[in-house]
Amino acid sequence: MSAHTAKTELKLIGKLILEGELVCGTGLHIGAGKGSLEIGGADNPVVKDSQGRPYLPGSSLRGRIRALLEQATGAAVPSELVYISKRKGQEVRIHQSDRPDDEICLLFGRNPGRMEKVGGGEIDSHHATPARLAVFDAPLVLESITPQMRENLDDELTEVKSENAIDRITSQANPRTLERVPAGAKFKIRMVIDQLCPEDAVLTGLLLQGLRLLEDDTLGGGGSRGSGSVSFHGLKLVWRGKDYYAAGAPEQELAAGVDLAALQAKVAEIGDSLVAA
After folding, report:
1. What gap in Å lies between CA 196 and CA 61, rounded to an integer?
2. What does pTM read for this prediction?
3. Residues 26-54, buried b or exposed e (16+ Cβ, 10 A)?
């Protein structure tokens, strides 16, 4: 439980830098929309960078972690959700409250203003909360797409999965294709967690909980149909106190080459000793 109150003062203490690899256990589809659809191409292409290489948008990873944490903490219920879009067929609901100790809002940020609650009524938030967590776009590790994998891919770096939707009355098939980054592909991830007060120490554990939930869930499209299984490996956690930025003090390596379980244990061992220093 967070100890934040409305009187908690925010001043940079330092930053935790989390880096490592996200490994695809099955094909991964992060959609790019159909604006770039080519003749003979997949119906649903993956997002690519300016060099035509698939990448994992930080917004996709961050949003999925947030959604899983909202479900795990009981925040994904109508009384705790607000609309950020009410366009028909494109409704978007997220958790937001005005409580100063709301860890979801502390980690992911919160804007002030009036919003409509999903369960009815409105919330008039007066607390602007800076997001502690930044998740960067994750580039593909090209070496993870081996020559043997390339021989069996539909494109140089991606595969195309064919699917059928079956009409329950006529049994008519409606074929579709889904472009995916293949199983075994790796992405380099980088996240930064700002520590703005001693009370922020609990937020790192919350992030790691979200990452562990993701390992037993899915990322991207087609999750219920076999896509999007991921895991995290070779994780490194570094502490950079405010003197690192102000006076060139050395960073402190807290863990290197570990998995999520080992990293959780290390963070629990450290507790709030860093941010309290």
Report:
1. 23
2. 0.91
3. bbbbbebeeeeeeeeebebbbbbeeeeeb
Report the C-alpha dihedral over residues 55, 150, 36, 177, rounded to 10 degrees.
-110
What's the mean pLDDT in 17-30?
A: 97
Across the strands, what pairs with 94? 82
pLDDT, tens digit, 9 for 90 and up, residues 160-216? 988 877 877 887 878 888 899 999 999 999 999 999 999 999 999 999 999 999 999
DSSP E strands: which ranges in 25-147?
55-56, 81-85, 92-95, 113-116, 122-125, 133-135, 138-139
Residue 202 has, within 13 A of its CA and on its CB side, a CA count of: 10
Sequence-distant (≥ 6) Cβ neighbours of residue 90 within 8 angstroms: none
Q: Read off the DSSP letter of residue 262.
A: H
Average pLDDT, the chain: 90
CA angle 261, 95, 275 (to 5 degrees): 50
Q: Which of 226, 251, 157, 237 is nearest to 189 (CA)?
A: 237
Other beta carbons within 10 angstroms of residue 4's beta carbon come to 22
State yes or no: pLDDT of 34 exceeds 60: no
Terminal CA-to-CA distance of the chain, rounded, Å? 21
Query: Within 10 Å of residue 189's Cβ, how many Cβ atoms?
Result: 21
Helix (H, G, I), strand (E, B) or coil at 164: strand
- The values of phi and psi at residue 60, to 5°, are -70, -45
